[in-house]
Amino acid sequence: MGVTPLIWIVTIAVTIAFFVFEFFAHVRKPHEPTIGESARWSAFYIGLALLFGVGIGVVSGWTYGGEYFAGYLTEKALSIDNLFVFLIIMTGFAVPKKYQQKVLMVGIVIALIMRGAFIAVGAALIENFSWIFYIFGALLLVLAYRQAFAHGESDPANGKFMTFVRRVLPVTEEYNEDKLTVKKDGKRFVTPMLLVIIAIGFIDLVFAVDSIPAIYGLTNEAYIVFTANAFALMGLRQLYFLIGGLLERLVYLAQGLAVILAFIGVKLVFHALHVNELPFINGGEPLLWVPEIPIWFSLLFIAATVAVATIASLRKTRNDDKKKERETFDGEKVIHAPED
Fold first, then answer.
1. How confident is the model at residue 41 (pLDDT cuts 50, 70, 90)?
2. How far apart are alpha carbons 1 and 219 in whole angstroms?
3. Contact between 274 and 287 (Cβ < 8 Å)
């Protein structure tokens, strides 16, 4: 793709500038964003991401452009899953609405830093060890199974990790505005706000484990991996407030993401077999008869899966709502039925 160090420096600098702008323009003063504000900025960041993808297609070719769009769509879907867990954490810690922006901002920055580290490590492994595709593929298949059958079974706010943190750190019971620590009777305590940030940082680390191998299953270009992740995380804060109620209605999101992760896992295994160097598989020779899944098919498959999961979720929740309304109406009829 021919990405020079200067392009990397400019890209990282612009990304940092966007997050600095976000902090000073929206997060510094605690407030709960309106629907209009959230919608405008969400549309802006999504439009910017799509425009960047078109730019990659025009400058570097539509093969790379397709890889970017497939990666962006995958990372955006996984980021929405992040939002669902963030919602659980916010509820578990009872974070006041006007302080949630700051928590989300810090969490998103932590996520980008962790993913950046994973991207660098992943690029080095792929460049030097082709067998890493087998590891990534197997990992995604395991994560796909867990995503489908173990999603939402635990409470991140009260899990083993946070129990350990509470045991180590002296914690106050109440929030002190958006401060992370407070001094009481000459002793320094941490507030629940710090615990929330620690919990989100830990969850970001867990999500990076499936996020980075997933996108490396769609492209080998570290630049595309980074920019797709950066754009997927930009505007995530606004999206949280825009679709907060909708998140609870996406009941099949976990299953949809599981299908995507499994598909990319299979794609990675196919690619690993196609470039095989392991001596105990086919004598260390590539299995050229194994098909390589083209990027256009990956893009269509991922988009279709997200669409089907969303439509099926909304249809199910709408039917459930109608069923509850009928049961409520029937119950009221029984209560108010005249006596004989």
1. confident
2. 11
3. yes
